Every structure is written in C-alpha cells, then in structure tokens.
Give the backbone structure.
Amino acid sequence: MQKGIIKPKRTPTLISTYSVVGKKEHDGPLGELFDEYCEDDKFGKDSWEKAESEMQLRAMKGAMSKAKISDDGVDILLAGDLLNQCVGSNYGLEKFDISYLGLYGACSTCAEGLGIAACFYGGEIFDTCGVVTSSHYCASERQFRFPIEYGGQRAPTAQWTVTGSGAFIVGAGGKIKIPEVLFGKTKDMGITDINNMGAAMAPAAIDTIERYFKESTHSPEDFDLIITGDLGFEGSEILKDLLLKDGIDIRKNHVDCGLMIFERKKQDTHAGGSGCGCSASVLSADIIKNLEDKTLSDVLFIGTGALMSPMTLFQGGSIPSVAHLVRLSSK
Amino acid sequence: MNKKEYCEYVEKRAKKSPIVKNCACAFVIGGLICVIGELLRELYMSAGMEKTDASTLVSVTLVFITAVLTGIGIFDNIAKVAGAGTLVPITGFANAVASPAIDTKSEGYILGVGAKIFTIAGPVILYGTLSGAIYGVIYYICTLIWW
C-alpha cells in the first residue's frame, strides 16, 4: 500500500506522444514543435465543442500511429477536458474500440491521466494506456466566462485557454520513464476571482511540491526542470515566492507551460496560457522531445487545476484547486 | 498562512488594470461614439425628421452598426481597448445581446439563441424595467401631492 509518493513496481514508460493545436498556439514560441495545427479554429466542424473532440481524436490517432499500435493494442483510454460532462473526450474517443475513463481535473487532467496510467501499468492491471486531454479557447470561454464576441477587457492576471490537445501512450519499451507519481490534495484558500486562477491554483502546487520534497530524498537541484502546468505568470510568481519562504528554492529551474506556449505580451494573453490542452501539448511538443534527445534527463511535471464552477462561484463559493506530480526521467 | 492572509497577499501583489490608460481610452472612444451619434441626429433632422424620431433612429443605427461589427468579429477588438467607452453607450447593450446570439446559434434558434440571447443583457432589462416602474410610481405620487 503506497500512500504518498507512488513508485510503480513495474516502471512505466512513455512510448509515444502527439500534439494538435490551434493557430494562435502555432504562432507562439513553440509553434514548429507541435505535430499538427489547424488554421481553422473549428477544425472543419460546425461547433467549438466538436472541434475539441476532433483535436482529441487526431491527437490520440497520431500517438497510436507513432507507437505503431491499433485499437486492440491499447487497454484503456484516460481522457479529459474542461467541458461539462467531458464532451470533448466522450465524443472524440467514441470512435475507438477501447475501454474509456473520463477524467476531470481542469488543467491538472494531463498529469492526473499520466499518473493513473502509471499506476495501472505499475500495478500490472493494464499493459498499455492512452492518455489524452484537450481544451478549446472558444468552447471554454463560452462555458465559463463570456460569449466569444462579447466586448470586454481582461484583467492582467487573467489566463488564456489554449486550443490544443496532447496524447500519450504509456506502457513498456519507451525511452522516458515515469518512476514516481504523487497525487495532490484539494486545496481552497478562498480565492473567488475568476480572473486570477493562478492564485487559486498556486496553493495546491505548493502543497504537492512540499510533500514531494519532504517525502523523497531529492532536492529541487536534482531536477533539470520543475514544470508546472499552468499557473501562468501570477501563479508562478506566487509559487516561487511562497516556496522560497518555506525554504524550497525552485527559482532557477522552474518553468510553466502557460508561460511557454505564448509570447504573453505580443500575443496579448495577459498572464499566459491555461487549460487541459496547454500542459498536454507543451509536454508533448517540447518537454518530451527534450527528454528523448537527452537535453533534459530528469524533470518534475506538476499539473495544476482550478476546479472552478461558475454556479458555485455565483453562490458565493471559492475556487478549490488540485495539483498532481509526475516525475519523468530519461536516465 | 490562513485563507484571509493568503487572499490579502494575492490581492496586494496582483497587477492592477491600467486605470488611467483605460479611462483615457474610454473617454476618447466613448466620446467619439457620442459624436457619431450627434452627427447622425443632425443628419436625420436635416432630412426633415422630428427631434424625437431622429434620436430614436440614432439609437437604432448604433445598435445596427454594433450588431454588424460584432457579427464580423471586429467589435470585441475595439471594446478591448475602449472598455467603458463602448460598454456604457447603447453599443455595449447591443453587443451584449448580439454576442450570445452568435455563440448559441449551434444549439438552435429556440433552445440556443432564444433561451440564451439575454444571458448578459437580462439583468439590465429586468432591473432597468423594474427601476423604471418604481420611478414611474414615485413620479405619479409626487404629481398627486405637488401638482
């Protein structure tokens, strides 16, 4: 029975990965690294929600094709997105003849999926797991905030939901290992500002990172990167500041997927990117490739999710958050 | 750090919106919209319209222009800079009705557009009508007492 850091007895590996993004993400600093992008935000479909499903379908198909496996080579699909009832995943993955588990962890879903997949593999329940998550700016905006064409001003701390999807195949034989997983605890520090999700998520990230360094023998310097996804500018600054006050200095090797995917000022994305598709696509396009070519050898990936519901927020509630940690190593 | 301390810490460090710049932009663009409105009114009156009719037609014209600009995806880019400059005049109201209508078209004309068109403007319509009615009653009582 493992309670804190989970070290799978059979070490899972990442066999393949594939990323699909929208035009704005392709225009960003990581543009050329994504496997696929579409000029049309609707991906040839007639609604934003269908577009999101299409992204998940393309991402999972791409990852399976890279791994040279078909439906019967994948034992389970773990997928999630930001939309109600996880419709992005439900409709997108219905085309596969594979058992399916829908996940909701907001922006932490990618780490949640990878963590569960690692446990399934480590516990010898499944041999090959598919993990895919996505988000779509337009679909999320209209569900959580305002209509797309509504004319309003965004706060400097607001984040921009990424249109993108990242898929991963977890199993045996890959170059990158997942030696450790730490699932986070839900944290609610009373933040009610929908335009400052970074501040809502930072406490969960702090808790998970502190628990990890307390329970493990490692210190932040042991890792090439400590990657959060996606605290954005505001949340990242809070994370580094408060961790430092607690004696953990991650200032040198911390990066955030929300800050990597866009050129914040030029692309007018305020505090940076967010959404299930942000960390998934950045991890897939950039981090994994760097681990594969040994530019990076050991990283901590902490998926952070603001579990925000407009309904409970209007009822006077605050925004709980959760952060899951997955260690990725090519050593 | 407890919840209260954390919220205060967050509030203190969060970058605020540039109020001076936003006010200046709102003043210039909002003022410009009013100038356009005034020019339109003069134009309609010079065409022989009564003042009240011309004023009504100005509102209709501004709503129409806003709806078109919202439909072709330009209005939100102007509003991003203008802020209250486009929100306070009738253009803000028109955009608040047109934008959910466009968004919810995919759910059909009844359950989509019909049900959701006043999602944003709804409170304005409800409480605007309500306060208008209350004002009317007060006005009526005043006329009974003093006139």
Notes: The CA atoms of residues 138 and 144 of chain B lie 10 Å apart. The interface with chain A takes residues 1, 3-4, 6-7, 9-10, 13-17, 22, 70-71, 73, 75-76, 78-80, 82-83, 86-87, 92, 95-96, 98-100, 102-104, 106, 119-120 of chain B (CB under 8 Å).
